[in-house]
Amino acid sequence: MGQPIIYLYEQLKEEQVETIKRAAPAYTIIDAQKETTQMIEDDIQIMLGWDKELGQRLLASESSRLQWVQAISAGVDSYDLKRFADKKILLSNASGIHSVSISEHVLGTLLTEFRGIRASINNQSKNEWTRENITYQQLSEQKMLIVGTGHIGQQLAVFSQGLGIQTYGVNTSGHATNGFIECYSHKNISRIVNEMDIVVNILPLTDDTYQMYNERLFLAMKPGTAFVNVGRGPSVNTNDLIDALNTGHLRFAALDVFEEEPLPSDSPLWHMDNVLITPHISGLTPKFKTKLSLIFMQNLKQFLKDHTLVKNEISLHQGY
Length: 320
What we know:
Blueprint: E1 5-8, H1 14-23, E2 28-31, E3 44-48, H2 52-60, E4 68-70, H3 81-86, E5 90-92, H4 99-114, H5 117-125, E6 143-147, H6 151-162, E7 166-171, E8 183-185, H7 189-192, E9 198-201, H8 215-220, E10 225-229, H9 238-246, E11 250-255, E12 275-277, H10 288-306
Parallel strand pairs: 1-2, 1-3, 3-4, 4-5, 6-7, 6-9, 7-8, 9-10, 10-11, 11-12
Domain D-isomer specific 2-hydroxyacid dehydrogenase NAD-binding: 108-282
Protein name: Hydroxyacid dehydrogenase
Pfam families: 2-Hacid_dh, 2-Hacid_dh_C
């Protein structure tokens, strides 16, 4: 058994690595993107980012010393949470880093639809000056249901209220949350969704949220609803979504995540006039490494004290 290793699968800036070295002098710091020296994999105790192949070997190893993984995303549905729980490995995510970026993305996609900007871009590509296919509506006074009232949902609510949008929320229990006029529980979503003009999905992927947006829920929505998905693709039944868009029951969908990524080239979604597709970019965030490093260092200092975490620890049983 050698010196414990902090394995940086997500590459950081040199000054950030030096900060880690000063905080954890008893550890060997391995930069996965630069290091060429051999290491004993089982000596990895902390991993920043998730090397899937290496991670699977560590989860299968009886002698692995892995105790904590800091994810670089908010969603952790790609992790084997049961194995983590069985081996008592801590997991924390990057929740909060992407809240401004995703909120701006949601409002940007809605403005392109509500103000006729998407249609204008299409007309420009054809050198056409016309208003015949331009439809417009104000976002102000629209009722928006934000499904997921965590960091991102709360930030979106604040930004949306600045545009005069009425914001309502959905969370596990229906507990009141800052920034929302009223919140409802997951089990009651179908009862109130028909009062909303816009539905935004920001939920993580769990057993409870898999395929929750299906024919039944789409039909429960008010005719003419706009739907935005910046949560997880498998939360939506794609065929049911396409049907709801084809019939006009949904007026518009802005989709950043999909059941299958990349979105297959033969998907009907590519050619639908009432769909805006973006290639999973809503979470792209300036100064991401700086923000991630701040979360990691807070947790690292606490972990070195008593092997606990202080920020963004995932409940391995709930999945978020």
